[in-house]
Amino acid sequence: MTRVATGTADTLTSRTTASWAARPVYQAYEILHVGFAVLPIVAGIDKFFHLLVNWDMYLAPLATKMLPVAEHTFMQVVGVVEIAAGLLVAFWPRVGGYVVALWLWGIVANLLLFPGFYDIALRDFGLSIGALALARLSSEYGRPVR
Prior knowledge:
Helix content is 75%, strand content 0%. By secondary structure, the protein is an all-alpha fold.
């Protein structure tokens, strides 16, 4: 037996949301949304603890010469920026996706300044494409801009 949609607006909205959740494109959006919110926050926090890796080694020697602070202090500032970027993605993915993409391009530029990390630069460029995809998908699935 087929039911006719005769419910309230809330019922129709929940049905629409349920149909979105079943769509692979929406699921891909949510995977990107969660990933690009959580992972920068984790990486940013780890800039203070170095449990995953010694992040200071990824700073190009040319960049360290130009810094007005110690490289570890600079990387802690980077950590704060990454935490902020992750929170921006979590709450405003339409903008946060672009911010993370630009941030990743800055990381790529830094990594291309010295040999030995070209593979990571390539990986981060690939991640930036994912961040751009998130930003574009959020125009369809994210919260409306007010």
